[in-house]
Amino acid sequence: QVQLQESGPGLVKPSQTLSLTCAVYGGSITISRYAWSWICQPPEKGLEWMGAIYSGSAYYSSSLKSRTSISRDTSKNQFTLQLSSVAPEDTAVYYCTRDDRLNSDPKRLSEYDYWGQGTQVTVSS
């Protein structure tokens, strides 16, 4: 059974960089068929795909590309999100997820098979 666990600060000040880590248990992040994504959900809004790391390469949402960086540490079996120049609008629950690119449509978040429990991040001074 694969488990994902997000960690990071719950409060970030405006203009700072948000850093979150997703630890993966029960499965290797180096298996090429799987993509590892970050998804956020602002208050009273829907889920937004932010980006993913897949086969060692990172892919980003066009709307967040200039502020987002996703990387992985294979020795620790974890991947990280960095979101720079945060603003109050970046307040959201952040999820790390896995999807199987051989068996799902990456545009359908409902087909992502494993999710972390989510971590609340508030951007406020």
Shape annotation: globular
Q: Which range best describes the helical content: under 10%, 10-25%, 25-40%, 40-55%, 55-70% or over 70%?
A: under 10%
Quantity of strands, as a count: 11
Give unreliable regions as ranges.
Answer: none
CA-based gyration radius: 14 Å
Which series of helices and strands comes N to C? EEEEEEEEEEE
Report how far apart the termini are. 39 Å
Largest sheet: 7 strands, mixed
Q: What structural class do you assign from the helix and strand content?
A: mainly beta
Proportion of β residues? Answer: over 45%
Overall pLDDT, averaged? 96
Description of the structure:
The chain has 125 residues and is mainly beta. Helices cover 0% and strands 50% of the residues. The chain has strands at 3-7, 11-12, 18-25, 34-41, 48-54, 57-60, 68-73, 78-83, 92-100, 114-115, 119-123. Strands 2, 4, 5, 6, 9, 10 and 11 form a seven-stranded mixed sheet that branches. A four-stranded antiparallel sheet has the order 1-3-8-7, with no helix packed on it. The radius of gyration is 14 Å and the shape is globular. The N and C termini lie far apart (39 Å). 26% of the residues are buried. The mean pLDDT is 96.
